[in-house]
Amino acid sequence: MSDELVVNIGPSHPSTHGVCRMVTTLDGEIVRHVEVVIGHLHRGIEKMAENRTYLQVVPLTDRLDYVGSMYANWAYCRAVERLAGIRVPERAEYIRVIVCELQRIASHMMAVGPAGADVGATSVFMYTFAQREQVIDLFEQLCGARLTYNYVRPGGVSQDAPAGWAENVRAFCRTHPSAMAEVDRLLFGNVIARQRMKGIGVLSAEDAVGWGASGPVARGSGVSWDLRRDDPYSVYPRLDFDVPVGSNGDSYDRARVRLWECIESCRIIGQALDQMEAGPVMAEAVPRLLAPRPGEAYDHIESARGSLGVYLVSDGSPRPYRMKVRSPAFCNLALLPMLAEGHTLSDLVVILGSLDPIFGEVDR
Known about the structure:
It is built from 15 helices and 8 strands.
């Protein structure tokens, strides 16, 4: 008679960080195997895109990474612009960089805070959400939305920043690094949190590369790869920033890398605001019913979760013949069974949270 017990965790449970179902085989408290069951948030966005115009697809991309909608907007629009040969005005490129670095901060606050909650430090959750709320307020001032923004459009952005918005962004960037230093002391300097996170779910640099991991999951293992620097796009080549990396590849390093990335995002935003000049925010003569010539295009950007790519095929009609999303959350989540084996059930929750999956993007 086997002593192993199969336990179903999720899909509707706070510890699964979304609609994730984990069929877990336990030997006492030790995890012997985890089968990740996805599909509970599948809406067929890639297929739906075939029946919508190129502009109508933008709101669908909002629903992919729903805590990082600006990124999905931007990745899709870059693929459309490459396909249609659209040149984006310089001011729009700077605005895109600013809003996406703000989005990185907001998204990482949704990873660092719950990382604290996963190990019992619920106060950290409130600290990080206070920071996230400030970013969401800035987005609301910019485009009127707080979650699904539909702001980045093929050819530029939907509208220019309102008067006083840049000053509000600067004010936030002045205070955010010190707030992150406080969270660093509160969470990553806490002896209990360190014991719960250090050495848990260790991912080697070789495995990170072999499994196609990217973003903080790969950088936490010492893989110094960031598309903003290593395959630069938009105006990133004009900006000076560092790429934080970890050394141990554990849940602690993955979470802490995200915190330091937020500080670097503030550096990037400050430089972009200094360099940005007045001008148009939308390319000229972009038709509402865009019909690129037959062909295909792929473009990718560095989202909060890693390399987010969009592949488009045009048959010359006003609707994409095919759209495919390369989801970093999907690729990173595939690591969970390997990382969790041999750890305890409580460690499983910590490891899952350290991968920071967003299931709108996993399922698509």
